[in-house]
Amino acid sequence: MPAENGESFPNIDKNRSEVNRIKGLVKADNLIFRGHDYDSPGQNDIDNKERELIMSFGLQGVETVDDLFNRTQAPGYNSEIAKEKLDILATAFYESIVESGRKEIVIAGSSSIEKQLSWARFSGRDKSNEENQSFSFMVAEKFRSNFGTEEKRNEITTTMEYLDFIKNSEYGKNGGLEEAAGQAYDNLKKIKPNVLNKKEMDAYAATVKYVSSLKYGEKTSAVENRELLEGIKKINEAAEKLTEGVKDINPKRKENDQNGEKNEGDNYEDIRNEIKGLDFDNSEQVLAYSRELLDYLENSNYSSDDINISGETTRLLNYILNKKIVDKVGKKEFKDIGDEIRARLALHDTAFYMAKASGGLSERSNNSIPNILEKLGEHDRFLTREVMRFFFDNNKDLDFTKAWNLLQEANFNYQQILRKAGVSEEKIGYKFIRTKDDKDPAITSDSFFGKKYINYEYDPKEEDKGIVFDYMIKELGGGEKARKALQLAEKMFIASGESSVVNVGFVNGDEFSEAIQFGRFREDDARPGKTKNSGPDVHRGWIKSLTPGWLRNFSGINDPDKPISADIIRNNLDYLEGKKDFYTYHSVIVGKKTGALKELLLSKKLEKPEEIVDIDYFRSKIDLFNKLDSKNKKSLRVFWVAGLLQSQMMNRNNLWDSDHISSLKRILTKESLTLKGQPAEYFLTKEEWDWMAKAINLKKYFAVDFMADVVGDMFKMKRKR
Q: What angle, rounded to 10 degrees, do the helices at 16-28 and 43-55 form?
């Protein structure tokens, strides 16, 4: 049986049951990510379990990995048995780490792996090998076995082991890591992966992505590094030439060409040598193969239109959609296959590009939310009503809705799910140190850093996240179906913008999150030492959110602090107003209105009175408020006017007088914003003006009674007398 992404290892299939047995013990007793902390709670119990695991091989006197290595050398013993047990153990630990969601550890190398395992039991080395290779090195080699030739495996090993040593050394911690990552990156550019080998391409892409994160930062995706992709274009060109050659020797193709028929897609079955054996009248075979392709794409961390990495997979999926099942309209099982392919492609690409956007709203950035929509539109990859219905209503094979609800709980009730996952109260108490004033369950306070916010998505403690991840997999029934359900739910979390909803710490400058969590954002940036403008004081604490996020937008939940269950989403799918609803929200409401309104509410700019006291000034702003405050069109307006006037009044260069204020009141409460013949609409009501005047205490700036309708004229008459 293959491991994740179809990986399998030579000479291990015959020992599969034994590998699975060891993996069961490793997971049940939590024997990875333990490190070398001998003072941690329950360490003696863990040590006994590690000892029992190795003794379960039934080799007398063998209690550590080092004992196993010694058995490969000791006279009078069967060295092959010891080697076999080491291989089983290394495979079990490799697969356990990968299946925990921490694949980057085995990609990194032996130094990183060694940090996750107990030093006492798993620190042995192969003394028969002149390199004195460690058990952790054996685990790392399981990942590198995906590279098809010994030459490539050696290059990858040399490159990654050196980088991993630097990363875990004092030199790396003191600034040498970026340079070493740059060298490793250059080495990877020289390695030519076999684009026709899915396992190798997946391993290569994962390695590049990991090294890129060390060189450029965690948010950088390997697909952004175009220089690397240029380096493997030649391989693709060679593949295209192979395609042309197949075209010439394919009698069926020649016949079709002569008849003027299109053959798009036919060549891929020869290159991949996978499709031609399928019975396309057998829906089970077609579904299984389609899911294999989709799994590969979803595990690749590349968009479906990336020609160098995933393009071949996407072309195969399109071939199945457009050539093989399109004519089976009357058969529901084939329609279901088409629905699944389209839905999973849409989810994968939307998640990919939303992750690249990182909550950016500026149209000047190519990767901002408004600008990524063009990419999604090229292949119609939007989260439409039909796509959302597939995941939240029609998906019977995977428990997607339960996975979604678990993710919601992990992000909105993190303390509770940590308890359910078995994290001790002592650890939870340390993680959530709170002052008496803190009411927010997501808050952890620190005397130096101030308030911080923690949930599953943004917990910096990877060990705790791993425990919760394992708990969710267990709740979903375990196995590959559970992992797939959680993987798709996590993609939906990113694609739908929920990752910005729960980014209450505003990690990585998430501008979308700053608008969703507007109230928190302002309180966070109003702390001493913060340099960002938190806006006028008068409406701080009054505006919680400018937009609650896309899912809440059509589901009627205006509070971004409340979880949104799969049932709520499913019951509100009819309110998705068509194919372009996702596009309209993210391009218009988020892209063009939210950022602009956020800046308007935060502005303290001093303007000349005559620039503001003009009905056209307010007409130019009204659309921002109407788009983002459709349920109650006046609240944001009155807060903004209060902040606007407070900023003008408090400025030392204040040029306003009572005449300006009187005229402004008339414009806001008595001049209609609409055209003649349409129902009159005023920017503010008289009651809202009165609230605003009281909130900023206009009387302290002008000793005048503003409650009279003709206050300006009365004031002038008093002065004349």
A: 170
Closest C-alpha among 331, 245, 238, 241 to residue 283 = 331
Alpha helices (H) along 390-477: 400-412, 414-420, 425-431, 462-475
- The 10s digit of each residue's pLDDT in 595-617 is 888 889 988 888 888 889 999 99
Percent of the chain past pLDDT 70, that is, above it, reads: 75
First to last CA, the chain: 99
Dist. CA 378–CA 217, nearest whole Å: 29
| Residues making up the chain, counted from first to last | 721
Give residues with Cβ within 8 angstroms of 610, minimum separation 6.
none
Burial category of 225 from C-beta neighbours within 10 Å (exposed 0-12, middle 13-18, buried 19 and up): buried
Residues 634, 630: Cα–Cα separation, whole Å: 9
**Three-state DSSP class for 450?**
strand
Helices (H) and strands (E) in the chain, counts: 39, 2
| Angle, alpha carbons 525-530-533 (nearest 5°) | 55
Query: Which residues lie below 8 Å from residue 178, measured CB to CB, with a gap of 6+?
Result: 214, 215
Residues 536 and 587 sit within 8 Å (Cβ to Cβ): no
| Residue 257: per-residue pLDDT | 36
Question: Which pLDDT score, from 0 to 100, does residue 483 have?
Answer: 92
What's the predicted TM-score (pTM) here? 0.61
Sorted by sequence, the CB contacts under 8 Å of residue 361 that are 6+ apart come out as: 368, 369, 370, 511, 512, 515, 590, 591, 594, 595
Q: pLDDT of 283-341, one tens digit each?
A: 888 888 889 889 888 887 788 887 666 677 888 888 888 777 766 766 888 888 889 99
Q: Residue 345: what pLDDT?
A: 94
Tokens of residue 464, six digits:
């705790």
